[in-house]
Amino acid sequence: MSNPQQLRYSKEHEWLSPAEDGVSTVGITEHAANALGDVVFVQLPEVGSAVTAGETCGELESTKSVSDLYSPVTGEVTEVNEDVVSDPALVNSAPFEGGWLFKVRLAGEPEDLLTADEYTEFSGS
Amino acid sequence: MTDAPRRTALDALHRSLGATMTDFAGWDMPLRYGSEREEHTAVRTRAGLFDLSHMGEITLTGPQAGQALDHALVGNLSALAVGRARYTMICDAQGGILDDLIVYRLAEQEYMVVANASNAQVVLDALTERAAGFETEVRDDRDAYALIAVQGPEAPGILAKLTDADLDGLKYYAGLPGTVAGVPALIARTGYTGEDGFELFLAPGDAEQVWQALTEAGQGAGLVPCGLSCRDTLRLEAGMPLYGHELTTALTPFDAGLGRVVKFDKDCDFVGRAALEAARDQAAERAPRKLVGLIAEGRRVPRAGFPVVAADGTVIGEVTSGAPSPTLGKPLAMAYVDAAYAEPGTEGVAVDIRGTHEPYQVVALPFYKRQR
């Protein structure tokens, strides 16, 4: 697998897209999706709610376990992916595309995120 | 355990198939090869292939092998016909369940006991101790067998291509020695999925050849390799207990709703008899808790250890197994709940999922029963 070069990555295995008009998209990496197994339920933050970098903002249920979703940045949620709520398997089939989770209006510059190459080395895949 | 996990005879094959491996009872086993939900569905609708070589085989031979098992286990094994198998349990003197077992009578004077990997040593030690004084030899055959299961509605057709054994004549819970893909195997019509299927006990050195032959024979029928993850959701849907979850040493077979496996009418004493008679009487008069099925109304998944609560928040039980069910499309759980809440349809039952009380419907087990 390859981690897209234009994204930034957290050590909790979320990715963040480059900001457009101050808004970035958040998802989980393919490495994380593979480790979870089939995702069957996602609970996302509500539109309008505040999220904080490094803090939990939702959860992902798979067959074997539940995992917290961490926000890679601080800001306000502007949109959630309703497609992934109704079809959580998108997280597994297209983690970097149709399986995105939410959009966030950044409260400041993202901090402590990894480049694609750094994340590849960190996650080992 | 600090020892490195043990690997089955099929380990290299699993890795070449890209399996995600997991440590299970000291063994490095395939958790899934791809999507565990697709593996689950394959077993329900077509066929799946499993490596279960971690299971522990123990053989008893000799003129009193049957009597030794009658004394050591709760079942009546001396009455078992040659070529048949029985689901049974081994209990301690207090009636607590040490393990659940399948016992095959392979010959007049030969039985094979199949224990869970996590309990195989305990079962071997107990059988060795309890068989002393009987004319029987207890043999540790854990390393003598690989175990491959082919499960699902297409399993009989797939296996029939590779054996001359009379599969039509082989009933559920029967086993006979035969040949599969040219090598000797004990062919048993048993499983842990709720589907028709077979378990093949064979020499570890033959395992890869048989796996490949089954893979080829199953190609047109949609057979896929399956890991332990879907085995767990399959057995959960089928309402089958798992040791360490629904069954523990703290519970008797009566607590688990499986008192029928205890055969008081056999004409001998057996380990745990007195305690089990008391447990039977108590279960009939005032069962403390009962094992029930729970079906979610929402989508959050209950996991083992989560509290079951009543409408007022009182804890009335505990989840023993839980998972999203691929067949029903909803989260399911097995749970022990206070007898007053155990009737199917009981209102107001919820599972405490990380602080939120999610409504659940109480149902009778199993959740899924195949159409015959």
Task: Give the CATH class of chain A.
Answer: Mainly Beta
Helix content, binned percent of chain A: 10-25%
Q: Give the biggest beta sheet of chain A.
A: 6 strands, antiparallel
Helical content of chain B (DSSP H or I, runs of 4+): 10-25%
- Show the largest interface: A-B, 12 and 16 residues
Just name the CATH architecture of chain A.
Beta Barrel
CATH topology title of chain A: OB fold (Dihydrolipoamide Acetyltransferase, E2P)
Write a concise synopsis of the structure shown.
With 125 residues, chain A is an alpha+beta fold.
What features would you describe in this structure?
The complex is a heterodimer of chains A (125) and B (372). Chain A has 125 residues and is an alpha+beta fold. Chain A has a single domain, classed as OB fold (Dihydrolipoamide Acetyltransferase, E2P). Chain A is 19% helix and 33% strand. Chain A has 4 helices and 9 strands; from the N terminus they run E-E-E-H-E-E-E-E-E-H-H-E-H. A 6-stranded antiparallel β-sheet of chain A has the order 1-2-3-9-8-5. In chain A, strands 4-6-7 form a 3-stranded antiparallel β-sheet. The longest helix of chain A is centred in the last third of the chain and has 8 residues, at 116-123. Chain A is globular, with a radius of gyration of 13 Å. In chain B, a hairpin with an 8-residue loop joins strand 12 and strand 13. The relative contact order of chain B is 0.15. In chain B, the strands form 4 sheets. A 6-stranded mixed β-sheet of chain B has the order 11-12-13-10-4-14, with helices on both faces. A 6-stranded antiparallel beta barrel of chain B has the order 15-18-17-16-19-20. A 5-stranded antiparallel β-sheet of chain B has the order 6-7-8-5-9, covered by helices on one side. By secondary structure, chain B is an alpha+beta fold. The A-B interface holds A 34, 37-38, 40-41, 43, 61, 63-66, 92 and B 20, 31-32, 35-37, 229, 233, 299-301, 303, 323-324, 331, 354. Chain B: Belongs to the GcvT family. Chain B: The glycine cleavage system catalyzes the degradation of glycine. Chain B: Residues 12-266 form the GCVT N-terminal domain.
